[in-house]
Amino acid sequence: MPGKIQVLPESISKAIAAGEVVERPASVIKELMENSIDAGSTEVIVELKMGGLDFIRVQDNGEGIEPEDLPLALQRYATSKLKRLEDLYNITTLGFRGEALPSIASVSKMTIKTRVKDSIHGTKVLCEGGVIKNISTVGCPVGTEIEVRHLFYNVPVKRKFLKSIPAELRQSLNHFLRLSLSHPNLSFRLIHEGRILQDHLETDSLRVRIESVLGREAWEQMRPFEFEDGEIKVSGYASLPTFSKRTSDGIYLYVNQRGIRDRVLYKAILDAYRHLLPGGRYPVVVLFIFLPPSGVDVNVHPTKAEVKFKDQERVYQVVIRALRSTLEPLPQYEEERGFTKPLELKEEPHPSLFGSPSVSYSSEELWKEREGFHFLDERTGSERLSKHRELPRIVGQVQGTYILCEDEQGIIFIDQHAAHERILFERFKKEVTRRSFSVNHFLIPITLEFSAEESILLMTHLEMLQGMGFEVDPIGKEVFALRAIPSFFEAKGAKELIRHILEELAFSREREAVKEGVETILVAMACHCAIRGNFHLRREEMEELVKSLYPFDLSMTCPHGRPIFFLFEGGELAKQFKRSSP
Ligand code: ADP
Ligand code: MG
To answer: Is CATH 3.30.565.10 the right assignment for the domain spanning 10-203?
Structure first.
């Protein structure tokens, strides 16, 4: 009797969108986990060493591989999931190309141990660089265990492109989480260097899985949605506008349980949240679309990360309607209500923008210390922009966001948030460099709960944060105790501040920014405490802000790199009114 796995005839293999499957440990983990899921497992355990760079093991209790099929499983285009060309348009498994195992085997040292239900023993295969070295019988449980060691040991060029251990671990974790989210009815465990990082017990509730994967806060802040239009069914959970992120990482998309990226779906989600979230914020959404396999082509991307819908417009409409059914009753976003309250610095009831009881910062002092100011853009080109302007006269606030000033040479708009952010950034930087701040200890530590990804990020920056006056340490899986913060912050907003810092760290990492961690944390602190746009300022506050920025270097930016000033030269105005001279 022929085995289950067959080498695809060329007519089919040619129709397959082939490509590079293995780029990094994370791709191995994704492919092996997908195989375990396709094999009908109920339990999948992933174990890693050095973020997967050195060692990856995926163990499942699925159907196993028949001994005679094993050599085939390691051959290109050999699969048990596809037999005829027509099947390519009706795929219900995660894999179908028969590419993953051979690709991984060719760049690593791989061991497969597997046993099918009806067999009294299992089979073990040793493979090096794609060449089978040994096949033997072994005792092992029903299911499959695949070990991948020394990834890219024979392709040094590829090894060079790999990132640090935490960065690789983060990517692997991301795939692990994506697959765990879409298969709540399976148990998943992730172990790194002998430590259990993730443990999701099987459940029939997506909500329970969301809590386990995304953390308690996400779970509390997410609401279910469901919508059906003929054969297209959409369901999932979406965050309330009070819970948003700086990046779109929190958007998990699945088509027939396959995790994908898709422009149309992203757009539908963001459109559904329009007017609910301020600019630059993204919701957290776990979205499943189910439609007949013939309505979607999954064979368009080498790592199957993208799909093509037959009827994109309809999919867009269904998703928007599904989300709106949950989001519509919510109030629209008005910027002044703010998501993170501005001015959470320790200040008087009528806060002076720069004063605080512990560190008093009169504008005069700032003036004196201005040599200590380091602007991001210190290029000399800025000299042209008249460094020696008079202190401008404040005309007023416009659109609740800009301070309008004038001097001899023209009209200056100042973005109040950007300006304040820059001032605070410089102040925090100085405090931290000089270690001139004191630390406030809480009587009762504040408990912080984060998602797995945030926890890893926090763990990798723990020491750095401690050096900056944040005493925070892990007290459980993804639970931390915040025991102290620098005294220029209030305890009240401490939780949000830490979250803001993590977001900024994740964001700068995503952008592969070369900025140092400390600087990123300072940026987050400044951004968190700076006054927002659409926030009314009293005259004295405007004056203080403008004075602290003085003398202006008009090329100055906020720590994120946005401009602070916009200059409208006096002559321009005269020109507009066809006056001969200003
Ligand atoms: P594909 O998943 O596209 O079929 P792979 O190269 O990933 O291709 O796997 C080749 C074949 O090996 C699969 O079709 C399946 O029959 C078998 N296989 C791989 N991993 C497992 C597993 N964990 N349990 C059972 N069978 C497996
Ligand atoms: Mg596969």
So the answer is: yes
How far does the chain reach from its first CA to its final CA, in angstroms? 95
Structure tokens at 159: 């090894």
The residue whose CB lies within 8 Å of the most ligand 1 atoms, and thus the one to mutate among 7, 66, 79, is: 79
Ligand that comes closest to the CA of residue 79:
1
CATH tag, 207-337: 3.30.230.10
pLDDT band for position 91 (50/70/90)?
confident
Count Cβ neighbours within 10 Å for each residue of 10-26 and write b for 16 or more, e otherwise. eebbeebeeeebbebbb
Indicate if the pLDDT at residue 359 is higher than 50: no
Cα(43) to centroid(ligand 1), Å: 16
* Residue 192: Cβ within 10 Å count: 20
Q: Taking Cα atoms as reference points, which of 98, 144, 108, 157 lies closest to residue 128?
A: 108
**pLDDT 10s digits, 259-307:** 998 989 999 999 999 888 877 889 999 999 999 988 888 877 777 788 8
Secondary structure of 317-343 as H, E, C letters: HHHHHHHHHHHCCCCCCCHHHCCCCCC
Protein residue with least CA distance to atom 2, ligand 1? 95
Ligand 2 center from residue 100 Cα (angstroms): 5
C-alpha 84 to ligand 1 mean position (Å): 17
| pLDDT tens per residue across span 114-142 | 999 999 999 999 999 999 999 999 999 99
Question: What are the structural domain ranges in the chain?
Answer: 10-203, 207-337, 363-568
In this structure, the residue with its CA closest to atom 12 of ligand 1 is: 73
SS3 state of residue 262: coil
Of the bound ligands, which one is closest to the alpha carbon of residue 97?
Answer: 1
Note the ligand closest to the C-alpha atom of 58. Answer: 1
**What CATH code would you report for 363-568?**
3.30.1370.100
**Which residue has a Cα nearest atom 13 of ligand 1?**
79
Least trusted range by pLDDT, from 119-128, 263-272, 339-348, 450-459: 339-348
Question: What is the tens place of the pLDDT at every residue in 204-256?
Answer: 999 999 999 998 888 888 999 999 999 999 999 999 988 888 888 899 999 99
Nearest atom (ligand 1) to Cα of 100: 6
Ligand 1 first shell, C-beta below 6 A: 4-5, 31, 35-36, 39, 60, 62-65, 73, 79-81, 95-101, 144
**C-alpha pair distances (Å), 167 with each of 26, 29, 48, 174:** 10, 15, 14, 11
Instruction: Indicate yes or no: pTM above 0.90.
Output: no
